[in-house]
Amino acid sequence: MRVTRMFALFVATIFVSAIIIFKTHGEEDELYVAELSQEEVNCTSFLDTINPPFPALLIDHRILKLLKRNVCRASKAKVRIAVDVRHSGIVRKAKYPMYDIVYYERPADTDYLRFLDDVTRIIPRQVNLEI
Hints:
Blueprint: H1 2-24, H2 27-35, E1 40-41, H3 43-50, E2 57-58, H4 61-69, E3 72-73, E4 79-84, E5 99-105, E6 112-116, E7 121-124
Parallel strand pairs: 4-5
Antiparallel strand pairs: 1-3, 2-4, 5-6, 6-7
């Protein structure tokens, strides 16, 4: 009976530890692990490879974090960019499958951009973020 209780306590401890590790596992850790196997490249060259043939804003958090750390890695994942809604007739999501395209608009008499995504987001116009 005592051995059964000890075994149950051991299994419960392992289970709780696994849950704690899973819950505290950060997004940056995931990026680091996922990109260890990918080849590191020059950030300027990396930006040239993801440069779309139309005006766009780079809004991909993963890539922006890597650029901030000056550690760029080649990846086959879609790049999240924002395109002015005025170009939506020319820039169609189906035509550019390598990009995760989000449209934005520039409301008149405002100093922000409104992103037309699942959740409406705004950023100041003063920031020059075009690639």
